[in-house]
Amino acid sequence: MKEHIFTDCLRHQQESNGKPFWNELLEKYRNDGFTNAEQLRSQFRKEKKRRGMVDNNMSQDNYRETIEVKSDGSISSDKLIMICEEDLKIPFRLLELHNFDPEAWELTYAKNNMWHMQQKGGTRLLCYQSKITAKPRRIPELSKETIDKIFENLDGREFAPVGLMQVSNSGKSLIVAMSDFHLGLFATDKTTGNDYNIEIAEQMYLSALNQIKDRVSNSSFEEVVFLVGNDWMNSDNLNNTTTAGTPQDSSDFWFELIDKSIELIAIGVNTLLEIAPVKVYNIVSNHDEHSMYSIMKTIEVMYKNNENVVVDTSPLSRKYYRFGKNLIGFSHDLNKNRALEIMSMETKQYWAECEHFYYFLAHLHTAMTYEKKGVLEIYRTPTISGFSRWSSKKGFVQSERKMQCFVLDKEDGITDVMNILVK
User: Fold this and answer.
1) Rounded CA gap, 123 and 104, in Å?
2) Between 110 and 93, the higher pLDDT residue
């Protein structure tokens, strides 16, 4: 069937509202070899079947969705989905529409039959009968050769140690939240609306550290809490994927990102040591769980003889810090409605001794302060990094690149929030 005839038949079918139209079309296309309306209708139906199009009398109300769990652990899902045409071939979008977490599941099969061409008003939002099969992602393993490769470039690298400092009794602590740094992310203005790569990341990071040092030059602190992790690296392996296997746009090879991460964290520790003794916390996150554990073990060894540096390398997904009457929880992300419950269970031995309770989260790349949950205040910290194609589509973006530092008083809790802007 000629394309213009097929398109005309399809348009009439969508706009007919049940009224007969085949005789009308027959009069238009008799010269194309059609002798009766049933012949035209039959060829149209065959052409739709050839193109994999489903009859328009299907609806989300009467379509029977199915889920099949297979013996190998994979799951098949058959349902109607609404999806933009340009996203049809993107695996993680199909997984999301079938209620699979792309971080935990991998698409192995997909078949999509067009159900509806176009909505009223011309919107290219299509409806599809979609069937997919997904299997749990396999977490990649680090071989001995890979681990050796990580450390071989560290030989001979020198980071000047800082001697024992005179501890201040100011009753204040400075929390430096370097959240969602995504070192190695490659983004361009054309594809994501912003530029980001390893050189830009390093420039932003050093600028932020210098600003922090200048902003607190007239203040004294008993200690600095340096939060790293929190998606410090954008990918977690040689395949340029997250820990669970989601592909990433990477600006550099993984070995180079490991080297640069160790270098930049050490620079950060040494810079903050000019302010006060430093406690470094690795906040476990979804992009770089394996890599950051190895990196932090390296940082721990680098500063093992420095009494002014304490390095937390625990693989726990939530960390806690107590300072005076303050108790603070650190997590990459958390259900804010359960935060009070979780903190009270995990830190019950400190509750009678503290008056101020906080949770610091990251992940969404935007500064937020949530409604107080009982005695608990929850902050979500912003980022100086660029944003990926996925972040751009999800709207996890901010109008300015910034990070936040918090001044914590032993008696009064958070007394100041400093916004550190970088360009």
Assistant:
1) 32
2) 110
How far apart, in Å, are the Cα atoms of 283 and each of 45, 144, 208, 331, 387?
58, 25, 19, 6, 20
pLDDT-based confidence at residue 398 (cuts at 50, 70, 90): confident
Distance CA 201, CA 208 (A): 11
DSSP string, 293-352: HHHHHHHHHHTTT-TTEEEE----SEEEEEETTEEEEEES---TTTHHHHHHHHTGGGGG
Angstrom distance (rounded) from CA 191 to CA 169: 50
Q: CB of 361 within 8 A of CB of 379?
A: yes
C-alpha to C-alpha distance for 249 and 199, rounded to whole angstroms:
15
Q: What's the confidence (pLDDT) of residue 141?
A: 56
Q: What is the pLDDT of residue 393?
A: 78
pLDDT tens track for 372-397: 999 999 999 999 999 888 778 777 77
120 residue type, one letter: K
* 3-state helix/strand/coil string of 78-114: EEEEEEEHHHCCCHHHHHHHCCCCCCCEEEEEEEEEE
Biggest distance spanned by C-alpha atoms of the chain? 99
Contacts of 63 (CB under 8 A, 6+ apart): 79, 80, 129
Q: What is the DSSP letter of 4?
A: H
Question: Which residues, 6 or more positions from 284, have their beta carbon under 8 angstroms from its beta carbon?
Answer: 229, 292, 315, 316, 317, 332
Greater confidence (155 vs 112) lies with 112
Residues in the chain: 423
Q: Is 135 helix (H, G, I), strand (E, B) or coil?
A: strand
Condensed to tens digits (0 to 9), the pLDDT of residues 279-312 reads 999 999 999 999 999 999 999 999 999 999 999 9
More confident residue, 337 or 15: 337
Phi/psi of residue 281, nearest 5 degrees: -115, 130
Angle of helix 37-50 relative to helix 3-15, nearest 10 degrees?
100
Tell me, rounded to whole angstroms, the distance of Cα 311 from its chain centroid.
25
Q: What is the pLDDT of residues 174-217, one digit of tens each?
A: 999 999 999 999 999 888 889 999 999 999 999 999 999 999 99
Q: Which domains does the chain have, with CATH numbers?
A: 3-50 (no CATH), 66-136 (no CATH), 144-422 (3.60.21.10)
